[in-house]
Amino acid sequence: MFKKTAVVAAAVGMVLLPFAGVASAATPLPCGSGYQCDDFDPGKASWDRKDTDDRKSLGCSTVELRSGKNNGSWYAWGRLTVGSVCGRYDAWIDRSYDGGRNWQLVGYFEVTDIEGSNFGNMFYWPDGAKIRAGLKKHGDPFSKSKTTAWH
What we know:
alpha+beta; 1 helix; about 15% helix; globular
């Protein structure tokens, strides 16, 4: 009986195996990994304009809300700077379509004092959306985070 079950299971596996790659190839990347959540790729852009819109500090770290305009479309990203002997901090971008009552956390990244400074992923900033940057000490709850004003 066991042998018959194993043969049937192997046959079913051989039939389904060619289809296994099809579903995974069509599956989009997770939203935390970059621009693909918006279907906009800023790629290697020549910026029409770049701004540092705001900054917020917490302990010995600072997050900057950065933005740039390319071909009439705005993108936003964060830059996190961490001082020496300060450990690890987390930063992100919040995007809201209702003035900040509800938001979506995008572009989460971490920087250590060894790295000193780094940039998060760029995200499309559509008309009507508000953007802000946030930061917190790694391991701390979000209730201890600091955010820039909404822009």
